[in-house]
Amino acid sequence: MIDRRLFMKGSVGAAAAVGLGAGMSASWSRGAVAQEKTITIGGSIPLSGRAAETGLNVHNGYETAIKYINDELGGVEIGGEKYKLDLKMVDDASDPARATTLIQRQLDDGVDFFLGSFGSNIVLPTAAIVDRAGKPMVQTGGGSDKIFTQGYKYVFGFYPRATRQFQSTAAFFGSLQPKPKTFSVISTNDAFSKTFAEGAKTDCTAQGLELLEEYELPAQVTDTSSVLSSVRANTPDVLVCTTHDQNSLLIARQMIASGTNVKLLYQALGPQLSSYREALGNYANGVTGATYWEPDADFKDKFFGDTKTFVDYYKKNYDRPLAYHTAGGAACIITYVTAMQNAGGTDPAKVRDALADIDIMTLYGPVKFTEDGDADPIVMGAKVFQIEGGEPVIVFPEEVAMGKPSYPVKPWADRA
């Protein structure tokens, strides 16, 4: 069920919506001499469908930052004027075609600023629409190379492009003792998974690991038994799954059921979710994944003050567990507002230029984009975690590690 407590309703009667031309208005009470201004930020997000688990996390992050700025800070000053923020996110139901229709409708209504959906297959077509319209999009849900190699000037992402995201994880594999010798890759037929798999193959090979097999599953996976049979017949030291949340969970469950054991299982998405870990129970221990943020991080933030304030404020308003996508969603808002302040106003082209130049610290960590709009792979690269006692523990890089990696991991039968 969607938590509705933080839903940001537009100001009624006393709002002039900047960025929502069709809804731009000012209501004057008797004797009123002031006009409250509102910046509308639109977009679509999966609140239902296959991507809803993470879509809800991103959405909650967007809402938390909006609510904090409006309710706790009384709005934000931009160009010498005070503004409230109005979030207009609509449910795209994990459907790219629906998302493009919804985004075009918001553009037709005059929305100037957009947040992204979750999943490269949704972000990619919606990014094309807003870029063509000359309206900025800041997103924490798409990392496919295709988003950042089309020459888009108005689209900014919180993750390095997919082919650059695996560099730190491959370095982690190379640091293990004894060093793994072989790896195989399972991907699905979608933009993110396929390009992430290419990066994994390149970076693992550069670390001296030999690629045994690569397997591609349909985007909508219902059974992986034939692929897992092949994995058992030609077993790698490391199995890399560049798959989305629900597909990763399905693969792990069927590996357990079929006794498909490897020395290390890495899954790009899935293990970061408490729902994944709860579903697998003790079997989740030993699985590795990537994270870009953890709740005990200690970063300064211009609006929240620090990460702890964000975490505490979020927990006051939501029962849903925190995930790095949640913090990333909140940081998208912080980045947007800071860019508007740096631009001295809400002109979309000037805000776009300010986003391109952004170099700030947020509750999520540092934010800096490449000239193509994706996250700087060094400044905003992934950290590797391994599940221990049902919780993700960062094990690489060593400078920020909270524990030591376990390798080789126990067979499934010994984790029950």
What does this structure look like?
- This protein is of the alpha/beta class and 416 residues long.
- It folds into 2 domains: 16-159 and 294-368, Rossmann fold (3-Layer(aba) Sandwich); 164-291 and 382-414, Response regulator (Rossmann fold), CATH 3.40.50.
- The protein is built from 13 helices and 18 strands.
- Strands 1, 2, 3, 4, 5, 6 and 7 form a 7-stranded mixed β-sheet that branches. Strands 9-8-10-11 form a 4-stranded parallel β-sheet, with helices on one face. The chain has a 3-stranded antiparallel β-sheet with strand order 12-17-18, covered by helices on one side.
- Strand 10 (238-241), helix 9 and strand 11 (264-267) form a beta-alpha-beta unit.
- The longest helix has 21 residues, at 52-72.
- It is globular.
- The two termini are 31 Å apart.
Secondary structure elements and their pairing?
Blueprint: E1 16-18, E2 37-45, H1 52-72, E3 76-78, E4 81-91, H2 96-108, E5 113-115, H3 120-132, E6 137-139, H4 145-148, E7 155-157, H5 162-165, H6 167-175, E8 182-188, H7 191-206, E9 210-217, H8 225-233, E10 238-241, H9 245-258, E11 264-267, H10 274-280, E12 288-291, E13 300-301, E14 305-306, H11 307-317, H12 324-343, H13 348-356, E15 359-362, E16 365-368, E17 383-388, E18 391-396
Parallel strand pairs: 1-2, 2-4, 2-5, 5-6, 6-7, 8-9, 8-10, 10-11
Antiparallel strand pairs: 3-4, 12-17, 13-14, 15-16, 17-18
Helix pairs in contact: 1-11, 1-12, 2-3, 6-7, 12-13
